Amino acid sequence: MIQNKLQLFLQEGRIEAGCDEAGRGCLAGPVFAAAVILPANFENDLLNDSKKLSEKQRYSLRPIIEQQALAFAVGIVDNHEIDRINILNASFVAMHRAVAQLKLKPDHLLIDGNRFKTYPEIPHTCIIKGDGKFLSIAAASILAKTYRDDFMNALHLEFPEYDWLKNKGYPTLHHRTKVREIGISPFHRLSFANQGDQLRLEF
User: Fold this and answer.
1) In whole angstroms, what is the distance from residue 37 CA to residue 102 CA?
2) Which letter does DSSP use for residue 118 in this model?
3) Backbone angles phi, psi at 125, to 5 degrees
4) Among 153, 159, 164, 130, residue whose Cα is nearest residue 59
C-alpha cells in the first residue's frame, strides 16, 4: 500500500487550522465548511482529499479526526444567503463561521483553493488543491463533506423526487430534469442558473 505524502504543517511550531468547503457546485442545499487543527503527533495513512476516498472511508475517518483534533468546527451558509451574497462569498463566510467556533485560536489558516476573504487577525495561505497536500485541509474536507451529506440525506426524506440521497444536490441529469419537470424546492439556489455572476467578491 502506498502511503500518502500529505504534510502535517506548512510551518512547524505554529497552530495551523486547515479549512475547506463542500457543496459549492450544487444546485440545492447549503455550503458547509470545516476548520481543523491537528496535533503535532497526528498520523493517518488513509487521510486524503475527500474526493479521493469512498463514502465508507470518509465516514470512518470522521470520528478519528474529531477525537484526535485539537479543535474542529463546521460552518454553514444556507441557500437563501448563497443567493444574496453569491456562492464564492458564501464559501468564505462558511469558513469564517467554522474558524470562529474553534475552541483553540489558530496562528495561521491553510485555505484550500486560490482565493479567500481575510479572517480578522489571523493570516492565511491559499493552497491550490490543498486537500491533497496538507492533512489538516484533508481533514476539513472530510468533515465538510460528511456533514453536508448528512444534511442532504435528511432533506431527501422530505423531497425524494430530486434523488438527493444519491446526488447530494449536485447537478446530475436526473436532478436537472426534475427541476425542469416539477420546479424547485425551498432548498434550491435560485441563482444556480446564473453561475457567471457567482464569482464576484462583494461582502
Assistant:
1) 9
2) P
3) -130, 125
4) 153
Q: What is the pLDDT of residues 27-85, one digit of tens each?
A: 999 999 999 999 999 999 999 999 899 999 999 999 999 999 999 999 999 999 999 99
pLDDT at 191 over 90: no
Express each pLDDT in 86-106 by its tens digit: 999 999 999 999 999 999 999
**Residue 80 in grid coordinates:** 437563501
6 Cβ contact list (under 8 Å, min separation 6): 47, 48, 132, 133, 134, 135, 138
Whole-Å CA distances, 58 to 50, 88, 144, 148:
7, 25, 10, 12
The full set of domain ranges for the chain reads 16-151
User: For 117-130, what is each residue's pLDDT tens digit?
Assistant: 999 999 999 999 99
**23, 115 contact by CB (below 8 A):** no
0.85 cut: is pTM over it? yes
CATH architecture of the domain 16-151 equals: 2-Layer Sandwich (3.30)
Query: What whole-number distance in Å separates Cα of residue 137 and Cα of residue 144?
Result: 10
Q: Which residues contact 110 (CB under 8 A, 6 or more apart)?
A: 10, 16, 17, 18, 19, 124, 125, 127, 130, 134, 136, 137
